[in-house]
Amino acid sequence: MENIETDSGLSNSAISKRSSKQTYPSDRLDKPSVIFGNKQSKSGEADDSLSWEVRGATFPHGTELRGRYKGHVYYGKVDNGAFVLQGKSFLSPSAAATTITRNTVDGWLFWDCKLPGRSTWMSINKFKNA
Q: Where are the domains of the chain?
């Protein structure tokens, strides 16, 4: 079982625990759309500014994701066209959530996101196209 890093100073992994949630009503976000895919730049090298695109939702590079489970808050990030959690890339939010809970989980309900330049967290389920 993996150890986690908490704000209280306990550590061992790239996951952290926090208990407060700040939101600002002035932050708004339009619903993004597209499908999943890792892409490369025209030069053939990986492009580190790619969005993570899954089930009709697009999350820009740098988007933070968080999920709560058993009193802990787990953080991931969109990097190079993928959702990265604990150093691993995931194709779906459910696969990432299952890694934490070790049970089948609807990742669209498990994860919140904070887009680059924004200060509010919102459920990723709001972005999904059925």
A: 52-127
